[in-house]
Design brief:
Length: about 400
Amino acid sequence: MKNLYTKEAAQKCKSDLDFRVYTSNLLGQSDSLVLHGGGNTSVKTTIDGEEILLVKGSGWDLVSIKAEGFAPVKMSTLLEMAALKELSDTDMVSGQKAAMIDKTAPNPSVEAILHALIPFKVVDHTHADAVVTISNSTNGQTLIEELYKDFLIVPYVMPGFILAHTIYQMTRDFDWSSCKGIVLHNHGIFTFDDDAKISYDKMIDAVTMAEEFLMKNAPLKINKNNPRIDLDTELLQTLLNKEKGMEVSLHINTSLLARCYATKEDLSTFATRGVLTPEHILRTKRVPLILETQDIAPALKKYIKNYKAYFERYAKEEMMLNPAPNYVVIKDFGIITIGKSEKEALVINDVVEHTMMAVLRADALGGYKSISEADSFEMEYWELEQNKLKAIKV
């Protein structure tokens, strides 16, 4: 992975926040680190004699975030929250907002408590493809432990307060000085330091290590002679318009990668093994519609029936989202992503492309394995993430 840091650009930074914006933008320039609002960064500082965490605000992208995109939150409040045994989403959000010293700033990231808990000035968090690809393999736990011997390795738990409190418990008698970072299984990676450049360098080095491991042990092999069939996309559009209750936009992807993915045997099993990282479920749902024949209507009807059954298995007081798919994998054709706008369909396509590459490489390591169906539902219907998605204009 290329390190994009330059002394010339860094010298233009006049403050800790300027430097924080600069290295956040560097992380955001690589879509193999973060995609469309993913990841978060922070810097700790002192304002009017009080220790403050400046953390990425919800709804901002790292690639374009500016100083006003960071939420200023009192460290003392966040650390008190980390020590609590329980904290509802509502109480966490209201507590963080109450602790902001600028009420006009955006809502703090759902990972603000964890950023406060890490005892370094600068914290970086990404959903690096290479790291999550290895983690999402059937041997991921062993492989990650072997690769990242100086990192704290955390099993998958729900992001937000649960994750922060889990790490609070794991690090009560912990030597942070010997820790190079944190790997969250099925989720992502953290690096940190008292210097923004060093934290950024650590991220690039850690992800490069994962990329080099994959190049050696699971090189991406794309068959260039994949068959290509025709599909009645007009019929698909008509059926989806009806089920979505609006005229949707379709993005058709028949690239070599998409066709290679769509030629695999038993697509109904191969292509329905879950998301690459939890946030993606908000874009893609847990699984796509699979079309292995030209019979679109019955396949779509079955998908919707299965989604409703999935919802009923786990729902408590939630209201069901639209049960129609957000993307389709078509045998010997490729993929089609579905959005309420052309932009949303393209965003979903980006997420699916990264997922396809990860699935193919994880299979080369012994098999791809995402978070459980129950964990997927919890993430898909997590109020905090749903609110963030609603705030994004597409």
